[in-house]
Design brief:
By secondary structure, the protein is an all-alpha fold. It contains three helices and no strands. Helix 1 crosses helix 3. The mean pLDDT is 87.
Length: 72
């Protein structure tokens, strides 16, 4: 296998894992929004609610760790 094939294989696998990760992020956010139907997360973020921002940031970091562990 020459270097170009290795590069192309790595690039394709990176793009696939990126796509899977983004899809899982969207599913995770939508499931969180579904669980918290009483509270409009987008409205709270627009109102500069720092606590909601930190909570969503922690949620996204947790999803990233789970996806990273699942991929490896």
């Amino acid at each position: 296998m020459w270097e170009g094939e290795k590069f192309a294989e790595g690039l394709v696998s990176t793009l696939i894992y990126t796509g899977v990760g983004l899809v899982l992020f969207v599913i995770g956010y939508l499931s969180l929004a579904l669980l918290l139907r009483k509270h409009d997360l987008n409205k709270h973020i627009d109102e500069h609610n720092t606590a909601v921002g930190f909570a969503l940031g922690g949620f996204f970091i947790a999803i990233a760790l789970v996806v990273s562990g699942a991929i490896q």
